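Fold this sequence, please.
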Amino acid sequence: MTERQFYDWQTAGGGGDVSLSADMLEQRGIPWCMIGGLAVNHWAEEPMATADVDLVIATDRVEEAVAALVKAGFKARRFEWSVNLKGHSKVSVQISTAPFYQPFPARAVLAKVHGIRMRVASLKDTLSGKIEAWRDRARRPSKRQKDLTDILRMVEAHKELRRLLPADVRARLDQE
């Protein structure tokens, strides 16, 4: 079974929705990158299947991207700091519009995650995004625990990241 087949099996065909999203953005030359779990999967030793696909798009191109994805069959719901899109699988594509993430696309790298070509946030940006998410007390405890696990996965794969961790994160990881 290929990486892509495994991901599709885990997400009821999510690879198609992820590929379509990436292709639509690339075809239009829209600055974008994956953040969150898919970006972590690129930087960590072993990937984990996730049905939550988080990405960031240049603010001035979000409406163009959403319109193209809706035309391609996604359904969109708007929130204060995101636009959530649902395609034909279990995957939920969330476009973050939070200002914190806006510089990420300029530093993104091309990658292959779950057998799918995409742009992912740089190593340092992925780490800082996970730290930001972990510090968000409004997030569910289970999500914050996953963020901490993702930080640990990245540090295990890239030892040099440990020195970049803020004291509160380092202390928490030392408890694990």
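The chain has a mean pLDDT of 94. The first helix runs from residue 3 to 11.
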